[in-house]
Every structure is written in C-alpha cells, then in structure tokens.
Amino acid sequence: MSDKDTKKQYIKEQLLKRESEAKTVRKIVLISVASILVLCLAGALGGYFYIQSALKPVDPGNEKVTKVTIPIGSSVSGISNILEDKGIIKDARVFRYYTKFKNESGFQAGEYEFSPSMKLNEITASLKTGKVMQSAALKITIPEGKQLDQIAGILAEKAKLKKQDVWKTLNDKAFIKKMQSQYPQLLKQDIYGKNIKYPLEGYLFPATYSYHEKHPTVEDLITPMLEKQDEILLQYRDSMAKKKLSPHKLLTMASLIEEEATEKTHRESIASVFYNRLETGMPLQTDPTVLYAKGSHQKRVLYKDLEVKSPYNTYQNTGLPPGPIANAGTSSIEAALNPSDTKYLYFLAASDGKVYFSKSLEEHNKLKAEHITNKK
Questions:
Q1: How far apart are CA 24 and CA 73, in angstroms?
Q2: Mean pLDDT of 93-119
Q3: Which member of 22, 69, 210, 365 lies 3.0 to 4.6 Å from 73 by CB, making a disulfide possible if both were Cys?
Q4: Cβ-contact 132, 109 below 8 angstroms
Q5: Where would you find the membrane-spanning parts of this chain (predicted)?
Q6: Domain boundaries, given as residue ranges, for the chain
Q7: Residue 262: DSSP 8-state
Q8: Class of the 66-127 domain?
C-alpha cells in the first residue's frame, strides 16, 4: 500500500472514530436532558398530586367529631396550624393558600366541632359562624402613620415588654425569614434592598388588634399585623398588577402620602403630584423623607436638614425612596393606586391643615407667600 493510500486509510479511521465519539456524546447529552426532564416532571407531578391530596378531606370515612378552640386574635396562619395539629386538615400552608385563592376571610374565634371527613369549603364556612368563648386579654391600637420604632414602643408599653427586645426581634434576620415563609406574596426580597433601613418598615398594618394571651411574644404581636396587611393587599392585586406596582413600591408610595396627608387633604391629589413628578424626572422633595433620613420626629424641616446625606432624602435623590417610611392606612393605599388625574407638581400644607395645589413653581411660591410667609 502506498503512502497516499495509508494516509487516506488513517484519515478515514480518524473520521469514523470522531463520528463514533460524537454519537456517544450525543447519547450522553440526550440521556442527561431526558433524565433532568423526567426529574422535573416527576417533581411537578409530585407537587401537583400532593396539593390535590391536601385539598381533600383527611379521612372521608371518619366522621368522629373533634372539638377545636380558635382563640381571639388568631390569624389565618394560626388557625391553619391549629387545624393541622388537630388532624382536621392535611397541610396548614395549603389551607392558607386555599383561603387566599378563594378570598375567604372573616373567621371567628370560638369553639368548633370538626371531623376529618369535612371538605375545606365546609371548614371555612363553619369558621365564619364561631361563638366567642373568651374576652380579649389585651388590645393594642397601632395608629396610621407610625414608624417601626414608634410601633416597637407601643407594643413594648402595652404588652409589658422591653422596647429593646421588641426592636431586636423586629430586625432579626431569622425572625424576618420566618415571616417571609408565612407571607411570601407580601414580604418579597426587595425588603432587603441595599439601602433599606428596616425590612419590616411600612408592613405592619395600622389597626386595633386583640390578643387572648396575657403575655404574648413579639411574634404573637406581629403576626396578625402582617396577616392583615397581606389580606388588605390581596384585595388590590388586580389594581397593583395593572399599575405594575409590587407590594414594596405600593407601600412606599402610600407611606409618603400618609405622612403628607392631613384630615382636610384629598390624598388622591397628593398622589397625583408624586406620580407627575416621577414621570417628569423631578425629585419628590417631600419633607417626611428628610426627617426619616435623620431619624428624628421634629415638627419642622429646616433648610440645613435638606442637606442630609441619605438615599431616603428625596431632595437629594430622584425617584421613590428605598422603602416605606411609615405604615400607611387603607385610604393612602387606595390613593396610591387611584391618583387624581391632574397636572399638579406642587402642594403646600397651610397652618390650618388645608392643602393647596399648583401646576408651576411661580404659582406655588405665590401660595407660599400668601399662606405661610405672611402668616408669620
């Protein structure tokens, strides 16, 4: 055989070898991909069948009645855990998601009789008819517009706790992670933003809460507040999606409105000023953010205060601050979702509590001279 034939034979053998190797690699890749797909499918099917199972009665043939006590002040999360512990439902988390999906609420404290054969819709219907068996041992009111450190003080005073202990828990990473696992649609990762001062700021809904324990823990105190905030925002999920507002952005905007509003204020108009400024790239220039940046509760903002270096200072930075600066009530949340259709870029709060709106700096300065400067 000539050298030329030998080379051809060698090249042919190498090509056949490479083709064989390529086939082997393709087989390995196909097998790997197929294995991954099978595992994913198995996981998805497993999750699907598990949820379907959890939505069914624990034991359709077991009608043995179990007495269940739902204490005053119990959240949906607390009720879910009680029902699971008593063997009435299969999975507390699935039950919580079921109530949210079905928009079930208004559950009552009281004494109930449940059986493992009951369906979830029968259980939720029964929970709305409970008879209260005990009076609240403790009631705490959280006013609108309070900041996290102020709420910590209220809780400490009413529940006979040390404020530093309450404050420590409110900012404890393990505690916050636990709350995130319970309310994943409310407490998303943006509460850990780079410049966030306190992750739970603005997330504790202002209302009056009843507790059946004489000496509740901080977790007992906070859980109903997060539960309520979660329920409130669930009512507005369609509006939030339409305006492309996450819970964090909505509560941030609502907190600004809450801090600027007075009893005589049309909150929707204040909201329109903030949105108009955001659209034009103007800084929001709202005084409460300056005070929040300083960490003070002074009555007036001085010119020197406007220079404070902080991402929360909306005189120095454009856009929304990193997060909420207080806890907003329903009226401010609704204003953030439904601002008035105006061209206003300025508003001025007079000493009588009335707020004046204007479209230009010239008009704003004129109103300022009339209602602020001339009143001094």
A1: 64
A2: 84
A3: 210
A4: yes
A5: 28-51
A6: 1-54, 66-127, 138-235, 244-375
A7: -
A8: alpha beta
